[in-house]
Amino acid sequence: MNKRKKNIFLVCIYAVMLLLCLLIVLLLQKVHSPHTKGGDNNRATESTAVPDTEEEPETKGNRETFSAVETEQCTKEAIRPSLPRRSEMAVEETKEEEKPYQPPVIVIASDVHYFSPELTDYGEAFDALEKQDDGKVVRYIPQIMDAFTDQMEKKKPAAVILSGDLTLNGEKKGHEALAEKLAVLEEKGVKVLVIPGNHDINNHAAASYFGKEKEPIQEADEKDFYDIYHRFGYDQARSLDQNSLSYVYELDDKNWLLMLDSAQYEPYNKVGGRIKEKTLDWMKIQLQEAKKLGVTVVVIAHHNLLKESILYPEDCTLENSQEVVRLLESYRIPLYISGHLHLQKTKTYKQEPGEKGADYHISEVVANSFAISPNQYGVLTWTGDNRLIYTTERTDVDDWGKKTGTTDENLLSFSGYAEQSLKEVVYEQVSSQIKNLPKEQIEEMAKLYGDLNSDYCAGRPIDAREIKSTSAYHLWQRNLPDSRLFAQIDQILRDTASDHNTWEGRTEETKEEDSDEDNREQTP
């Protein structure tokens, strides 16, 4: 081949190669373009879950915006081609964020009896109130609540529950002041739940104490109670009873709290408690739903379910307690928590002689008054092996006082001050009833009663044999064997053989044969 032909041949080869390159570039542009017909069809195929909409006219502005977004997405995919898509990442992140189930812990503070400082000058009238009371440290309850808030911020329970008698005597201003304290606790990340007690609604004993005067003041009615406290449980309720201030609160997917309003305040306030018939109907619906979902329910109310105290048999146990016991046991409810008594007590229901029922019986824990030494609260813990454990803890006002820099000596040594206050109030009340005996004997006898009462309130065990061997007991036995006070000492000794500050039980699955309340009631 001559040189001319060789040159022509090379030019042709180069021209073909150039054309091939141009074709490849055009093809690549077509493949990556978002505006081609094929691209639109591909996008529509990928978006089958989106309903058809009328296509907007394509303007220069939205073309540029769409191109910019698409270009950015392509760039990200080019930089991180090995990363999973967003949906896949979300699934993986969810899996990583899922933590093992943590059973809940709740705290119960009953009978707080909050009294607002704006309702007194702590003068003569207030002093008379304290002397006639049962040992509540009313003047320091605001500080006790602050110390309690400090402890709860550290403990972070799933919920803090105030189970009735939130105020001293239903003062509306007292409710409002307490709600402000509870709002602070919630701001610190702790959920608060409340129910009313017999002191809280339509209580004509609501009063202020200035100088020597006790003056009636506005009491809270049912609407006031709801308006003041609706954010503390009612707004978050799974179900609200339309006939009382009862509700259901979900602790988590496995555990509910049945918060019962046991107080009687219509048409007037009563000391005793009762669950309304329509509320019992509502309760049954909630318990049926819980059983269907496999949920454990713990019941919380103000009044006692069982006969808890030999010393205080009146106005403490629900008037229709047997009906409530049958309903709760038919759904194998493990625990009912109450207050009202101002004593720390635990008990499991025992059938009456001749009564026939299931082999399963409900337990009750009565929380003593938060306002009375040892100013403690209950802690209920669910465990991973279907157990429930109840313990008590003291509100550490002493430590709170030191941290806040108070100069009040009573707050700096509060545990001792509160216990001594309780004993002194009871001592004065008892000694004033003992007549015609030497002063030293009266003092010794009254001191024994005060000491026993202090242990009784706190749920501490008392060795009856040891007490009966003391000289103080012999003085009672010799001088006032038939007196009401000596009978009460005997009742306290019979009621305090064991420690009532701990309780343990199990959560059980509801058995079909035990959950039919109607069949239970027809059993002879």
- Helix fraction? 40-55%
DSSP summary: helix tally: 18
The residue ranges in which pLDDT falls below 50 over 5 or more consecutive positions are: 34-95, 510-524
Number of strands: 15
**How large is the share of residues in beta strands?**
5-15%
Distance between the termini: 123 Å
Based on Cα principal axes, name the global outline: elongated
For the report, how would you describe the main beta sheet? Answer: 7 strands, mixed
What structural class do helix, strand and pairing data support?
alpha/beta
What Rg, in angstroms, do the CA atoms define? 36 Å
Strand order of the largest sheet: 6-7-8-9-10-12-11
What is the mean predicted local confidence, pLDDT?
Answer: 85
Domain Calcineurin-like phosphoesterase: 106-342
Biased composition (Acidic residues): 510-524
Region (Disordered): 34-100, 498-524
InterPro entries: Calcineurin-like_PHP, CNP_C, CNP_phosphodiesterase-III, Metallo-depent_PP-like
